[in-house]
TrEMBL record, chains A, B:
It comes from Streptomyces chengmaiensis. Belongs to the HypE family. This is Hydrogenase expression/formation protein HypE. Residues 32-143 form the PurM-like N-terminal domain. InterPro entries: HypE (IPR011854), PurM-like_C_dom (IPR010918), PurM-like_C_sf (IPR036676), PurM-like_N (IPR016188), PurM-like_N_sf (IPR036921). It holds the Pfam family AIRS. Signal peptide: none annotated. Residues 156-301 form the PurM-like C-terminal domain. Coiled coil: none annotated. It comes from the Bacteria. The gene is hypE.
């Protein structure tokens, strides 16, 4: 199960097995989406399969995740999603009303994100060889001229901004899956981030890195960026916005909010000179009202994420080996 | 299970559930891939999930199907595949050597088809919620200027050509799955059809329809084209190339070769004036040596496929309700 968790084991599978097998430069970038040259345009192209349990949860469904997840992967290249594909693997016996509710959620989420479902596929497998509904979406979008956003571009001096409070999606899933109550209902943050990214790029095209910290959470995303760029990331842990309900649930469950999944948040690495303006633009957008500076890139500890703790000490934020919560997306 | 078989039930699911839910014109075309406008280019975009059992079979593997299937869906729009995504859903406990063999097959098939694996994803589900390995590929390619290939373009007078003998993939899968022996080993015909389509388009850009008759076989493909265009298709059944081994196996199993899956064949509808030249170009290509004219479009029985049998009678070739062989691709 750990190989599917988005942590170190997932990375090994990709680096040591898939990348050599497919042998090409494009895949080597390992961003959330590939940026591809075509005559007259640069395309972003991304794919994700969704296996979340349960199919419906507070704040959304597998249908919302399937649209928003791929829209967001494209947005992390600076691209506005144009077209999505949508492929179902249905388990024999799943009710058509369930499939219908998911398709309706996909349609509504696509409309909200301004993306067109262009093509699809449906396969059915025998009972016991699936889990109700699995969905794959792939997406394509155009990358604006002058935009070059990828993990390798983080450099010392960059300011690290998160777009809002973290951990809501993971805790929302966990609460329904385990039947836990935390006083207040925690809702998933699933949302399409394309227009937030557009608002940021209207300030400056020189955004260095964007990442949506889904599986593996913020801690994993920061580690991947530090490793890809060879830059150190200094995190000010007390500046990371953690909702009270998430902090409480994490304490109860023995989880670290830094590794809990998000579905409607992004982390941005921007040049210091642009940071204030980008932060202001984010806060003016409905999906960025809780944006906060949470750290910076440093020349020290290259490739590592180090947190300054509340007490003035430091701790290394590692890449998790597997996953805290399986099948979160 | 029938809803995944590519027959009438699959069509109902798409028409009555998915298309209304996603509500857009692009999806309404319902070809093997969508043709999408982007500044300066027309893109083809297609997706397919592969759930074939077993993962390895005579003539190929799920990896070959995953590449060739999507390359071929793009080719059926006249597009040369440029980039593929590749997403795995792995069942907990599947051996990494198995995943490695599949990834190697994907890499080799991509190289053979001249397509780049640009982006990917891996999810892992618990044992009992998958079946070893499921693979989704999505692909994008460019449609040449002046090419407009889609099922709606079939018109009375078109000549119907199949690129080679039918039924090999389905019988190859069936033979290993059921442990049957038919004297000679039947191998899957899985192959990338992009270069064959290029050779055809070098003769004329006015190819009306292309379809790779996979799930549901040639009979289903012809029915879909007849229904989409409102044209009658008159099939000369004795001209359909059925290998002896396929005919024998079908007799033994009680199957109709017209509904058995293919993975490296196409059916083309071309204007009568171009038919001889297109057929010659196909026969000169390694994947089209067995090409044959199998019928024509007629003004009679609009939307229906009618076969002239060996004895001079006629029979209606219906759209099958579900599927003869589940999980064939």
């Amino acid at each position: 199960m750990g190989h599917g968790g988005g942590g170190a084991l997932s990375g090994e599978l990709t680096r040591h097995l898939f990348t050599p097998a497919y042998g090409n430069e494009t895949l080597g970038g390992l961003g959330d989406s590939a940026v591809l040259p075509l005559p007259g345009a640069r395309l972003a192209f991304s794919t994700d399969s969704f296996v979340v349990r349960p199919l419906f949860f507070p704040g959304g469904s597998i249908g919302d995740l399937a649209v928003n997840g791929t829209v967001n992967d494209l947005a992390m290249s600076g691209a506005r999603a144009a077209y999505l594909s949508c492929a179902f693997i249905l388990e024999e016996g799943v009710g058509l009303p369930v499939v219908g509710r998911i398709a309706d959620a996909i349609g509504a989420a696509a409309a909200a994100a301004g993306v067109v479902i262009a093509t699809g596929d449906t396969k059915v497998v025998e009972a016991g060889h699936g889990d109700g509904v699995y969905v794959n979406t792939s997406g394509i979008g155009l990358v604006p001229d002058g935009v070059d956003i990828r993990p390798q571009r983080a450099v010392p001096g960059d300011v690290v901004i998160v777009s809002g409070p973290i951990g809501l999606h993971g805790i929302a899933i966990m609460s329904v899956r385990e039947g836990l109550e935390f006083g207040v209902e925690v809702e998933s943050d699933t949302a399409p981030l394309g227009s937030l990214v557009e608002a940021m790029l209207a300030v400056t095209r020189d955004v260095h890195v964007l990442r949506d910290p889904t599986r593996g959470g913020l801690g994993t995303a920061l580690n991947e960026i530090a490793a890809a760029s060879g830059t150190g990331v200094a995190l000010v842990e007390r500046h990371v916005p953690v909702p009270e309900a998430v902090a409480g649930a994490c304490g109860f469950l023995g989880l670290d909010p830094l590794y809990v999944a998000n579905e409607g948040r992004l982390v941005a690495f921007v040049p210091r000179t642009e940071a204030d303006a980008v932060l202001a633009a984010m806060r003016a957008h409905p999906l960025g009202t809780g944006a906060a500076v949470i750290g910076e890139c440093v020349a020290e500890h290259p490739g590592m994420v180090v947190s300054r703790t509340g007490l003035g000490g430091t701790r290394v934020i590692d890449l998790p080996l597997g996953e805290q919560l399986p099948r979160i997306c």
